[in-house]
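Dear colleagues,

As part of the handover before I leave the project, I'm documenting each prediction I ran so the next person doesn't have to rerun anything. This entry is a single chain, and its sequence is reproduced below.
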Amino acid sequence: MGQAPRRRGPRRPVPSAQGPLRGPCQGRGDRFGPGAERLKTVFDQATATVKARHGDARVENDLLRKARITVRFGTLSNCLFDERNPSRAVCLENAVVPEGHTGPMEGRCQPDRCPDSMTGTEHIPLYDSHHRTQLKLLQTPGLPADLKALISREAERAQAVLDKIRSTSA
């Protein structure tokens, strides 16, 4: 006895590329950073190609799949680490990478410096808390000057990320 033939119903339309990345790449502006710009460029190119070829959502999804962009959703930022070009990742600079490890090192993430980072409004609470903590630490009496300078730099980094997020989302 053979297998029963599969019933084929009407073809369902393939939904367009959606999710947490689609809106920002259409100019909503709730993402910032070099990674967001790169992702927007890929989406724009795919959209333009679909229009030029009179394609549909299936063609768009195929083009986006071929772009091979992987987004890792992280605590400090969303990372567009490219395994074909890991030299771009700031987290791997001067890092001792464990044997067998592939990909970015989230604990060393520096979204204010990395060309693979994409930060958005969902990261505001973390950076706001970090900034307030650094400001509170600066009020500690008797801090050595070098530690005070380090804490000040951290507060400035957090404030810079907050400023970029808030100016982008305003």
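The first helix runs from residue 22 to 28. The beta strands are 31-32, 72-73, 78-79, 117-120.

All the best with the project,
I.
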